[in-house]
Amino acid sequence: MFPKKLQQMLIAILLIVIVGTIGFKITGSEKTTILDALFMTAITISTVGYGDYVGIDASPAGKIFTIIFIFLGAGVIAYLFTSLAAYIVEGELKEVFRRRRMEKRIEKMKDHYIVCGIGMVGLYIVNELYHTRRPIVAIDLNENKLEMLQLHNLNVDLIVGDSTENEILEKAMIHKARGLFATTNSDNDNIVIVLTARQMNQSLKIVSRCNDTKNLDKLKRAGADAVVALNYIGGLRMASEMVRPHVTSFLDKMLRDKESHLRVDEVQIPSASPFIGKRVADIDFRSMGNALLVALRKSNGDWIYNPLPETVLEKDMTMILLATVEERVILEKLVNPKT
Fold first, then answer.
1. Could you give the CA distance from residue 76 to residue 96 in angstroms, rounded to a whole number?
2. What is the DSSP string of 38-87?
3. N or C terminus: fewer CB in 10 A for the chain?
4. Residue 210 to residue 227: CA distance in whole angstroms
5. Which of 202, 213, 211, 198 is nearest to 117 (CA)?
6. Domain co-membership, 209 together with 275
7. Of the candidates 72, 82, 84, 75, which has an alpha carbon nearest to the alpha carbon of residue 19?
8. Are 167 and 188 in contact (CB under 8 A)?
9. Which own/partner pairs from 118-124 qualify as long-range (CB within 8 Å, at least 24 positions apart)?
10. For the ranges 162-171, 239-248, 282-291, which has the lowest average pLDDT?
């Protein structure tokens, strides 16, 4: 689909050619053909001017038409071609500057998330990360995916390239990233992405999509921390809709309600946190809003569900909360004031 400005230029050029052809046909001699008139139009507006090919030497009207047509037609064509060249150059420069600004933004990123493959699965991931205020870099082979992201009001930087290549992952600042999602439609590509990403950043959290459950072990051996099999998850969801419909309805509303950013989220207690050694009762969750502590996970993997008020918080313990984005951000700052 041509841009509107370009369409208008092409229509104007076409109209000038038609007017010139008809004019030279009418004002030329009886032997003048449509091709002769078209040729005369072409050499006139291009200012080449090989000579008289339609017999206007003997026609005063033809000479007058030619004079008018030279001033108007050739002038308009020159203006249109100049505008067209400027439009193309301007568009290219805008794209160059846009990409450079994007590269500079990405170079400054740290603790961000990389989403490799912006299909429907990748789009949902980007949407969730964006609305929970996590920094994101998207990667896809198709440059048109940027328009798709903008169509969904997702102001996210997109690197156009192959996620399996080291150079593209380096552009996404993988060495400073917190996590990576391998979400392409190909399990083979996801395996290569996971393997490459793990080699480039040993501490990176990697979550991969899996289309065929027989590839689950391959993806884990390649370095994925978690693998999501869409068919398996879909089957569990369908079963849940049958046996626990109100639970699924609650989760759906929580995730899809655009008026509220309430989520089941997590905040880790790092080393030297002022929360270490405190009891759950000492933490004023109400001062943050309506944050609700649901569970605690110890560093050894043990879980404490619905922790009692006297439960003591430990280093590297993870708090599982029901909270809004704003409440989570407040708690993160309290847990780790140095950030």
1. 30
2. HHHHHHHHTT-----SS--TT-HHHHHHHHHHIIIIIHHHHHHHHHHHHH
3. N
4. 6
5. 211
6. no
7. 72
8. no
9. 118/142, 118/145, 118/148, 118/149, 118/158, 118/183, 119/183, 119/184, 119/185, 121/183, 121/209, 121/230, 122/181, 122/183, 123/148, 123/149, 123/152
10. 282-291
List the structure tokens of 180: 């990576």
Residue 302 lies in a domain: yes
Q: Give a yes or no: residue 123 inside a domain.
A: yes
d(CA 210, CA 208): 6
pLDDT mean across residues, the chain: 85
Length of the chain in terms of residues written: 339
- Which structural domain range is residue 14 located in? 4-104
Q: Is residue 242 part of a domain?
A: no
Which tokens hold the place of 189? 């590509």
Specify if 309 maps to a domain.
yes
Q: Is the dihedral of CA 303, 309, 315, 319 positive or negative?
A: positive
286: CATH? 3.30.70.1450
Least confident of 258-262, 277-281, 333-337: 258-262
Whether 154 contacts 129, CB under 8 Å: no
Find, among 41, 58, 169, the residue nearest to 116 by Cα: 169
pLDDT computed for residue 221 by the predictor: 95
**Which runs of E-coded beta strand occur in 134-234?**
136-140, 157-160, 179-182, 205-210, 226-229
Query: pLDDT by residue (tens digit) across 22-79?
Result: 887 888 777 778 887 887 777 777 766 656 656 666 667 766 776 677 667 767 777 7
Q: Are residues 113 and 100 in the same domain?
A: no
The answer on 138 and 99 residing in a single domain is: no
